[in-house]
Design brief:
The complex is a heterodimer of chains A (about 375) and B (about 375). Chain A is of the alpha/beta class. In chain A, about 65% of the residues lie in helices and about 10% in strands. In chain A, helix 7 runs antiparallel to helix 10 and helix 10 packs across helix 11. By secondary structure, chain B is of the alpha/beta class. The radius of gyration of chain B is 28 Å and the shape is elongated. Helix content of chain B is about 70%, strand content about 10%. The chains are: A alpha/beta (about 375), B alpha/beta (about 375).
């Protein structure tokens, strides 16, 4: 028979054990909030103030007009111009400039003659993603420059043009993609550190054996040990959610209830994994190792920063075991796409399955892994 | 026996003790050798920012040779998998259901406007939830459009002269393969974890068991205890490091353009900093429980997000850029990306090594001070 009194007693004891220790308390409250603020601003793919060095061999009116366009863009910041070939390598190698724009000496005269003028853009490819994005910004500026030139000379532009619209995130602000992800990331970290060592520590101290000989049944121990992780996760998760909406101003378009069902199931499954690791580990060191080995791949292979669709198929299958994968989909579709319950069932179900399996494994190994 | 000889013997004894402890509990060896291999295998293949195989819904309301030419250009591009939809409504539903990543829509007056030079609009919709991928996809769509445009104009006989053409030269990574910069970055992140994991629990464990006090009543000095712990773990960590570099070069084909010597020297320095960070956590924390918690919070996510491994540091707001200076992985990511892709660019390598050196002295300075204080 499962009694609520037993569970409550254990849950309160677990919560007190975490919150009465001053160092633990500080660790659980301070860093996640600080990290939210820092990561929320840090984690962006959008580029501003890209350092550009201009190497203008032409000095014509047209080349100056092109440079002026770059200067006027918030994406670029012009550093001291170059005046001979040898400086290009130095500027790029030493990361003084991300782009060197080399305008040849016949730039102006070629365009005046109605020909095409080539402009060389030398880009630091050490971070290829940044290189591609910077090239994209540069292309937009040059396209605008070309259209203006066509118009001023009374010529018709290209016969077909692109009318680009992006859905759900009109200005392609990458913060809207990343900040909801951070909600998931930090909830996972908090839950893992609350649950990952809870059993292992008691095993090492010998108090877990004592707990097993009390009238408490393993199921009651399991629930009692799960409560703190879920409770602390829910409270901190809600706070981070509020910050995402009001501080970072990510639009919340969908149903908050649908999001909370997702968060509860996610915390339940993360608690399950944490307790499973903790109860299989014989020492705290093994517990920490297990927590890391769960946490690190969970985050990196969750689709948080790099898309799951880019992974090889085997690894894509592996991500089905990762609760964070589902929660990130829920967060992003509720925040940006405005999805509600029905569309998210496919995400709720696997998390429930992970929770049931891992919690059962944790409960089973309470008794079966006595050293 | 003179003093220096005695000192050396004490240190030798300590190193022997720590080494035996490592050998008898294989978990340290697993952390140093098995963990980097597994993580690098998973992440090296799993982490990629390249937008390939973009699923593109194509809606052609009135098919003819002109539309076939444009759609054909998308089919021939290695970046797209075009899927044909008959109405734009169907394509929009597919975009909402994540069955496609974008739509290219040619309305029924496309050819008329194209031939009468009234600028035919090509409707492009992308799912912007993942803004970075959307931007890159749009870039590739623009590329296909531009190539098609110039070949179309040439066929029509009126050569379209775009006044300014950009000729991009992407140095160090001409094929813009994101793996080339992600794998060196991953090595830095993984090594941060391993360094901290190896040492964060060792001192805390001795405190918890009371064996640290026992060590302290012997003639051994605190610096000798630390050194004795450090040397075996340093050797283990460097082993894992070489394994990772070998995988980067031979498995992931990342070019190693700099010298092996510079790589080894910088790695050794970083390994000292990473181990120092672990030791610091271990010394500050009262017990293994807290040490473990601090290690999880302070190592992984900061190294992942603030090191420049995936998010460009220069794109962050200035106060955040300032904060990244306390993340050791930041310096190592810059060093590794440069040594692997660009070569021995000394101004970059030396300035980052100097920062690591300062961090190392700061860490060990605090450790020494804190370790003394504990006994009083």
């Amino acid at each position: 028979m499962i009694t609520l009194r037993h569970i409550l007693a254990l849950a309160i004891k677990e919560l007190l054990a975490i919150l009465k220790d001053k160092q633990s308390r500080v660790i659980l409250i301070g860093p996640p909030i600080a990290q939210l603020l820092v990561f929320g601003y840090a984690a962006t793919f959008d580029l501003n103030h890209i350092p550009v060095a201009i190497y203008d061999e032409d000095h014509s009116q047209l080349s100056r007009a092109l440079v002026a366009r770059l200067r006027g863009s918030p994406h670029f910041e012009l550093i001291d111009p170059l005046d001979h070939d040898g400086q290009i390598e130095v500027a790029i190698n030493n990361k003084e400039a991300l782009i060197v724009l080399h305008i040849g000496s016949r730039f102006g005269s070629e365009i005046e003659k109605g020909k095409s003028a080539q402009v060389q853009a030398i880009i630091d490819g050490r971070n290829s993603n940044t290189a591609l994005l910077a090239l994209g910004y540069l292309r937009t500026i040059v396209t605008d420059f070309n259209i203006e030139w066509f118009e001023r000379n009374g010529l018709t532009g290209p016969p077909a043009s692109l009318a680009i619209r992006s859905w759900f995130n009109e200005n392609l602000v990458s913060r809207w993609f990343i900040v909801p992800g951070i909600v998931g990331l930090l909830s996972l970290v908090i839950t893992t550190i609350v649950t990952g060592l809870s059993v292992a520590r008691e095993r090492e101290a010998g108090t877990f054996d004592q707990l097993l000989v009390t009238p408490l049944r393993p199921v009651e121990i399991l629930i009692g040990k799960s409560v703190p992780g879920i409770l602390i996760g829910l409270i901190e998760g809600s706070f981070i959610l509020l910050m995402a909406i009001y501080w970072f101003e990510v639009p919340l378009r969908g149903n908050l209830g649908a999001l909370y069902i997702g968060m509860f199931l996610f915390l339940l499954s993360a608690t399950g994994v944490g307790l499973m690791i903790s109860s299989i580990a014989l020492t705290q060191q093994q517990g920490i190792l297990g927590a890391f080995l769960f946490l690190v791949p969970s985050v990196i292979l969750s689709g948080f920063a790099t898309p799951i669709a880019n992974m090889p198929e085997i690894i894509q299958y592996l991500t089905y075991l990762n609760p964070l994968r589902y929660f990130l989909i829920i967060l992003r579709s509720v925040f940006l796409e405005g999805d509600s319950y029905a569309l998210l069932l496919d995400q709720y179900f696997p998390m429930t399955l992970i929770a049931v399996v891992t919690l059962a494994a944790a409960g089973w190994s309470f008794r079966h892994r006595l050293s | 026996m003179n003093r220096s000889l005695r000192k050396r013997m004490r240190l030798k004894g300590l190193i022997r003790k720590e080494s035996l402890q490592i050998l008898r509990d294989p978990s340290s060896i697993a952390i140093a050798f098995i963990m980097p291999v597994i993580l690098l295998l998973l992440f090296g293949y799993g982490v990629s920012l390249d937008a390939k195989h973009i699923r593109l819904a194509t809606v052609v309301e009135q098919p003819d040779t002109n539309t076939a030419g444009l759609i054909g250009a998308f089919q021939h591009s290695e970046y797209f998998i075009p899927v044909l939809y008959h109405t734009v409504q169907d394509a929009e539903i597919a975009l909402m259901e994540h069955k496609v990543d974008g739509i290219v829509w040619l309305r029924n007056d496309f050819s008329d406007r194209l031939l009468s030079r009234k600028t035919a609009p090509i409707g492009v919709y992308v799912n912007g939830v993942n803004a970075n991928q959307a931007r890159i996809s749009v870039g590739y769509i623009q590329g296909v459009w531009q190539t098609w445009l110039s070949s179309f104009s040439r066929d029509q006989g009126h050569d379209l002269k775009t006044p300014v053409m950009i000729e991009p030269r992407i140095w160090f990574n001409a094929a813009v393969n994101s793996r080339y910069f992600l794998v060196p970055g991953l090595i830095a992140v993984i090594m941060t974890l391993i360094g901290a994991l190896l040492t964060s629990m060792v001192v805390a464990r001795e405190w918890e068991r009371g064996t640290m006090e026992a060590l302290m009543v012997t003639p051994i000095r605190i610096s000798e205890i630390l050194l004795g712990k450090l040397i075996p773990y340093f050797i283990l960590g460097m082993g894992g490091m070489f394994l990772s570099v070998a995988m980067a070069v031979w498995l992931f084909d990342v070019p190693l353009r700099g010298s092996f010597l510079a790589l080894t020297a910088a790695s050794a320095l970083f390994m000292m900093v990473a181990l120092g960070m672990g030791l610091l956590i271990s010394t500050v924390a009262k017990n293994q429980f807290v040490a473990g918690q601090i290690a999880i919070i302070t190592t992984f996510l900061p190294a992942f997000i603030l090191s420049g491994f995936i998010f460009q540091i220069s794109a962050m707001p200035e106060p955040i850029q300032f904060i990244t200076h306390i993340i050791p992985a930041r310096y190592f990511v810059a060093i590794l990306q440069t040594i692997f892709l660009a070569g021995d660019i000394w101004p970059i390598i030396l300035s980052n090594c100097a920062a690591l050196l300062i961090m190392m002295f700061v860490f060990f300075g605090i450790i020494k001070k804190k370790a003394h204080k504990r006994l009083i």
